[in-house]
What we know:
- This protein is mainly alpha-helical.
- The protein has one domain (about 5-60).
- It has 2 helices and no strands.
- The chain is rod-shaped and about 80 Å long.
- Its main location: membrane.
Amino acid sequence: xxxxxxxxxxxxxxxxxxxxxxxxxxxxxxxxxxxxxxxxxxxxxxxxxxxxxxxxxxxxxxx
Length: 63
C-alpha cells in the first residue's frame, strides 16, 4: 500500500483501530510477560525453600 499522508497510514485503509489495537495488545503482553515470569519464579523458589525447610525439620524429629 502507498499512503499519501500520515493520517492515511494510521487509518490503515479503515482498519487502523484493529491494526494498532493488535499492536498495542501485543506490546502490553510482551511487557508483562517478563514481570509475570519473575513473580512465578520467586513464588516457586519460596515454595521449594519452605518444602526443603519442612523436610529438614521432619528428618531431625525422626532421629
